[in-house]
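Quick entry, no commentary yet.
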Amino acid sequence: GRVVAPETPLEELLHGVWREVLARDSLGVEANFFAIGGHSLLAMQVTARLAARLGHDVPLRLMFEHPTIRRLASAIEAISTIEPAAAVRRAASG
């Protein structure tokens, strides 16, 4: 399938983290994490890195319930008590 590029700052952040953890050059925001080589240990790495960069917890279950970047970004925005764009800007500048 075609590679769909990230469209929001949060999708960009997730995209970067997934590429680091999966050691992949290219992946689309609609690719399923577990179908492209991800597993539970890597999912834990993703959520730990995201929590560190966003400054709030990202529950591991979100990775299993929303295994694409696009769906995960929406889920994180839904649970965020902080304004996501500000957090992403902070993460990008840190």
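second:
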Amino acid sequence: TPGRATPAEPAPAAAATPPPAQDLPAAAFTTPDGLTASGEVALRWLADAHLHGVDAPLPEAVVAWRTDHDPAKRPAAEDALTDAVTRLAAALAPQPNTLPVLQDADGYYSSPDTLWLGVAPPEPTADLRDAVLDAARAGTLDAFLSARLPTEPQYTRLVAAARRYEALCGAGGWAPLPVPGAKTRRGSRWKDTAAVTALQRRLALEGYLSGDPTGVYDEPTADAVERFRAARAVWAKRYFDAEAAEALNVPCQDRLATLLLNVRRWRHTARVGEDTYVRVNLPEAIIRYVRAGELRLVHRAVVGSGKTIFHRTLQRDIRRNATPVMHDAISNVVLNPEWKVPVRLAREEIGPAIDSDPTYAERHGFRIVTAANGQKMYVQAHGPDNALGQVKLTFPNSEAIYLHGTPKQGYFRYPRRDFSHGCVRVKGIVELGLTLLQDDFEARGERLSERLMKDAIEDNEKTIWYGLEQPVPIFIEYYTASVDDDGLVHFHPDIYDYDAATLKALAGQ
């Protein structure tokens, strides 16, 4: 066209140039020749995942590539291994329980395993995948995955114990020992060289006895039997009997399953890093008070009964007197507490006792009061016969659960101690209560006179409430296995059959 410039022909598009090799992200887990150091770490963690209660099989793409090292299969293996490790990292992280009380839709207390049983593992995020790759490329994958585990020492100890018991089971476990009959003379049983040798070998398997078997029921053997019995909630005596034999004859695989179950539970503890707390382990019936990360006190306890009754409406067994898995904060220390009898106990126990014996109320310090709603209530005055003992520790929960003393000290000597109506009785409650008060006073720069407190308890003239300025977290939990400082594993009674129900469900899966 006259007066118009002719447009130039467009230049041919430049061919896409691949970025230099050094600009490509390095493979995190694989090389043309095999696995990187991080790849080896990844395989080790995946192989050990079951010890943490996590299902993390080695991806088929990785297996296929490692079988023939076909270069074409390497990208798929890299992606599959990245995905598997990222999912493992997501599953390993603690998922703290946030529910104040674990209970079902009918209002009855639930197993801690309801927090995870049948619940899909958390989906990994893109950020977590990037963090896994960064750690793998930096050679810090082992530390990265370790840092995601619960920091509670019991978790680490239980995983280590599960590894030991898995090796024991893999080597054949242990053969059952003959159970002594009731009519067998104890002296003759102890002189049976073959039977004593078998017992010594069995005790050695779990670390309760060292050295070669002697065939003689000597002091080290008696000591080992006593330690074993104590660690299995059997009367801690120094002789081998049917009770000890039954505990020794629990199959290795059953013990391993219990360990793995408790590992799983620890990832759902409600604790989120508190360094001061009171912890009640229900199956063990033990209370621990930890202050600033240091164990201050350990007390025996009596917890809610595991007895069941059949509920006709629900068509299942229920435990009306169980203690719930829960968490709260101890806010008050009460000296010389009165006991307001719960409605059900008043209806089923105290009321009938008073009706059948006109002197019962006076002899046990009960008086009858009428609440604002017109409900008749029984209140037991403070004193040596008071069911709550000398001290009560309260925390504001919906279940009216608290820690308290008791005049019935005999129950504390039993190895299995689930006898209460739901609250937790504490042996040495005065020491625990006064220690909580002393620590609270010291934290605010004041001094508590222990003598005055003890005098107030001994005088027993009135009920005294002390509010803690810094309430102490309390965690009531359910662990049927624990590992002591010597590495010995303790198995505690499954008082509410939570283990039995969960293991049955897992077997069904």
